[in-house]
Fold:
Amino acid sequence: MDLTKSSFFKHAVKVSFSKVDKDKSGAINPHELTLGLALLYFKLSQKVPGIADPPSLEEVENYFKSFDRNKSGDLDLEEYGEFCESWVKTKGVNLTGALITGVAIQALLLPEIANQIHINTKGTILEHVPKKVLMIGVVLISKFVFK
Structure:
């Protein structure tokens, strides 16, 4: 699964570019690029937590030069998109690992937590709550805890 080919990724690139291109010149410099990547990282991590670490300014400046094809000192949207795609592919994105972890948590850990709650609440009001309802509660709570 190549996240960088998805419509979600392409939209995230456009949104992050437009947010940092404050003067609407259609180009961003290395400092704006660092902010753009941080915004892109934030947007992607909402969908896939832990997908990659945001870059440092020094990393961006070193990587920037190879994507500024016309040597203008700025990146246009196309260059920025290529930069983001390359960054995500080479800088530690582990989509498969994130998906496997998510599935494992959902399929193995959360049901066991719900089961332990059910077992350990004998004699309380929670004893009368069906296991499936406890499971839904645990899943909902996990969405806030693992955000």
Notes: The two ends are 23 Å apart (CA to CA). The domain at 3-122 is CATH 1.10.238.10 (Recoverin; domain 1). The chain is about 65% helix and 5% strand.
